[in-house]
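User: quick one, fold this
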Amino acid sequence: MIVNLTKDGWDVIYHRAHALLAAQLGGQWQRSNAPARFYETIAAISHHDDLEKEWKGNHLTEIGAPLDFTLGEESERIPESLKKHLDESLYRGRWVAMLTSMHTCYLSQDKNDVSEDWHDFLKSQVENQEKWQKELGITKQEAERAYEFMQWCDRLSLILAQQQIPEDGRALEITHGIDNQRYDLRCLDNGNLTIEPWCFEDEEFTVNVESSHLSELKYDSDEALTNALKQAPIKTLEWTFNKQRS
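Assistant:
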């Protein structure tokens, strides 16, 4: 969960909703500069957080607040759910499985020396990626370009969902996108957002994500939090992007 503190409680965005927001952003990308197998790449972005299943494990901090994903504990064992997630990604095709595997390796790169199991697991993922690239007839560079695009969309979605948009017209670097191009996010005087340089097909578009509002600051148990979220009012958060006129 992505958890934001408000004046009267918490706003919670589910990780799979954040992934859908990332896919919306990716879908607006300019077609002339799109990565290989564009629509399959968008599918991978949309489903890359399917592993984040709600209501499994602990979702509270020590004082009973909803647990933001950045505060979760890292396991030194390879979760069976992670292996299952990667296996199931193949049902959407090798391209989606390859990008999902690359994302897993990126997120787990610090685990390589934790144990022999993690080392062997990550090594097998790289071997799978190379196998799929050969079967799909693509180069490693094409695969890496598509994954850089996926990372960029994921990062921009997180900036929006985590309410990290800078104020007073200041620019925030998103991350280097495809072809090592730097992109900055900035809020305009009218409240809309822009990306510099502009990298989208249309000169204006709107994206959205759903957020659940919790009015209590702390909860006695995971069950209490689960029930509160299932009954929580839902609001749609929207952001409109505009191309800046020169």
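User: anything notable?
Assistant: Strands lie at 2-6, 9-13, 171-176, 182-187, 193-196, 204-214, 234-242.
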